[in-house]
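Table 4 source record.
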Amino acid sequence: METDFLQLRDKTILITGVANRRSIAWSVAKVLEEAGARLVFLFRSPELRDRNLALLGKENAETCVCDVEDEAQVEGLAPWAAENSLVFDGILHSIAFANYSEGVRPFHEVKKRDFLQAMDISCFSLAALCNALKANLAENASIVTLSISSTKMAAESYGYMGPVKAALDSSVVFLAKSLTSQVSPHIRVNAVGASPLKTSSSAGIPGYIDAYLFAEKATLRHQALETSEAANVAAFLLSPRSSGINAQTIVVDAGMSCNYFDSDIIHTQQL
């Protein structure tokens, strides 16, 4: 007997951030598809969309192109949604970028243009998308963004994206407040704060693998978080089953945040 536990069947979800099959956004999309949701994919460029059509598995996949750095393109989302009679029950915001072309620099040496670009793409884009599509949201729409498990710990390998993600977490709270006040009292905005994952985006961060291996030792199970585990939480937050959760960053780290003084880690450092 089929069940619809997540209550996502025939719900329309906008998916952003799919770059390839290793993207966390793609893992979330697969969970949503299995739950019977209708998926609409937003890509940064026509080239990126074309490269992923095979991944989507169908020629008639619903897609649109929008570079979130371009205000005109973001503003064009509302008429596009209206023309296609789209009302979104959920939005997955999985957009992030940092310029690591010169490696990870000490935070006080970060270039202003790089920091502001990362803030624009990785954080402000969430507010921009919500504002552009506010008239195209269902009254109980759920908006979920992807953050990190701790923004209060200075992970040097992550560079200035730590402060950017901290701003994203704060934006979740303020967006939840403003959207419930001005658009619909039932709209929800939450984040998934995942510990280090093996994704296509993380592969481009210099020194990330060392942090990933340390995180693996630091989890209570001594096994790194799987992308699918973070994706499952994102799918839950997008579903009506999580209706009581709003303005939160849900940490998904396999217990890493409570285990920094694990005896095996301490012993390894003493060798």
